[in-house]
């Protein structure tokens, strides 16, 4: 029974990946990409990685999908020479077919199949029984949390997580740089015209906030944590933006900068304080570890949520 | 050979990576190339987590899980940056493929 | 015990049936409005049946409350999004007709 479910899921995932690449219309590829992410999230659950499943469904499928959808709108517009929008012709322009000479296609296809065989061989030769599960489990009582994945993320390998928040910040800055001189959409609070959309967003905002806070706190003992909470809080910002409340552009510039950097900054201060008091970088004192991790997680979640909202607000002008 | 969850998903991960690699080479439109890189990444992550499942003791190995969560966020940030570059190119030149691939 | 299990199976099968019907409608109906109709109606009902089945299976009051909230929130978001899609389509058609006149 297990094998049946797993094989079905695997075949579906592979099929959807194929459709992403081969669907004749670009819009179809993007919609299939959403479905692909959700199938992958189910695969993570089958593999027992519930944290990864939440992250995948929320970030890789949800957030990325929203950005893709918005880009799709951009790519289906035709620009005239003076950069003005001429007309929306999403359905009128035929998308250029990806066609190649058959010899090129054959060579690439054979190369890919060879590559596939080699990588399967390599994967199956990875020796069994490695892994650090036993060490992770033995140190769990000292880490301040009960969930091993959170312990790895925020305690054992806090260094990685700290730098990861830095990567998100770098990504944000790079997007600002690549976006040219265009600023955010004009600041202003002009709620959506549609009463139903407005109402739904207002209902979802507190629910998302509550659920994010729950995931943040629950990360201590089960699947959840800073990233998952951050995406839910980021989703609040994105929803409000879609509804016309451009929250991120309304708050003052200095405040925005503080929001985006506070996670990275606090993490760094904490690390150096631990060094100053005689520990290693990110060596939490076991007595306060739980509390410190919760504070760090909260600030990191706020920063990541702000960064995701900023990316969305800047990309979708 | 015994076929279980690990075997199925590690095989899937290799196939997904190959599909993504093919997409990066063969797809022309920027968006499709970006999706292809994300699929490649998904293949790598699936491979990691299937190892964690195989080597599970009382619980699955948490280190690959943490690595994959970190990896997903970084991959999405990089893809968002790629999207912004692609949109910028499209805005400035009106192109949606690389010039030499037309 | 037996009766409860039979109930669960009936609820889950009914849910799957409605999902199947909704998907069939999505694939086979001719225009956007009837597709949306098939999708939202049948899928929400199917999800309700499956949620009821799972709640009965878990048989814990807190889990039931959570599953109920999942169902309500899904109802809300799917209703709003399909309404928005339908409204967009209608406005498109209206502006197209306006041009032709």
UniProtKB/TrEMBL annotation, chain A:
Segments crossing the lipid bilayer: 6-22, 29-47, 53-72, 102-124, 162-181, 201-218, 230-251, 258-282, 288-315
Region forming the signal peptide: none
Record carries keyword Transmembrane: yes
Pfam families: MbhD (PF13244), MnhB (PF04039)
Na+/H+ antiporter MnhB subunit-related protein domain ranges (all copies): 197-301
Keywords linked to the UniProt accession: Cell membrane, Membrane, Transmembrane, Transmembrane helix
Membrane topology field: Multi-pass membrane protein
Stored InterPro entries: CPA3_antiporter_subunitB, MnhB, MrpA_C/MbhD
Recorded GO CC terms: plasma membrane
Domain MrpA C-terminal/MbhD intervals: 12-73
Domain of life: Bacteria
Subcellular location per the Swiss-Prot or TrEMBL entry: Cell membrane
Family statement drawn from the similarity comment of this UniProt entry: Belongs to the CPA3 antiporters (TC 2.A.63) subunit B family.
The protein's name: Putative monovalent cation/H+ antiporter subunit B
Organism encoding this protein: Cecembia lonarensis (strain CCUG 58316 / KCTC 22772 / LW9)
TrEMBL record, chain B:
Keywords, in A-Z order: Cell membrane, Membrane, Transmembrane, Transmembrane helix
InterPro entries xrefs: CPA3_antiporter_subunitC, NUOK/Mnh_C1-like
Localization of this protein: Cell membrane
Membrane topology: Multi-pass membrane protein
Keyword Zinc part of the UniProt annotation: no
Keyword Lyase attributed: no
Signal peptide range: none
Top-level lineage group: Bacteria
Any one annotated GO CC term: plasma membrane
Spans traversing the lipid bilayer: 6-27, 34-51, 63-83
Primary site of residence: membrane
Similarity field: Belongs to the CPA3 antiporters (TC 2.A.63) subunit C family.
Protein name per UniProt: Putative monovalent cation/H+ antiporter subunit C
TrEMBL record, chain C:
Keyword Transmembrane helix: yes
GO terms assigned for molecular function: sodium:proton antiporter activity
Presence of keyword Transferase: no
Residue intervals passing through the bilayer: 6-27
Domain of life of the native organism: Bacteria
Pfam families: PhaG_MnhG_YufB
Keyword entries, A-Z: Membrane, Transmembrane, Transmembrane helix
PANTHER family in the cross-refs: ANTIPORTER SUBUNIT MNHG2-RELATED (PTHR34703)
Protein name per its UniProtKB record: Putative monovalent cation/H+ antiporter subunit G
Protein species of origin: Cecembia lonarensis (strain CCUG 58316 / KCTC 22772 / LW9)
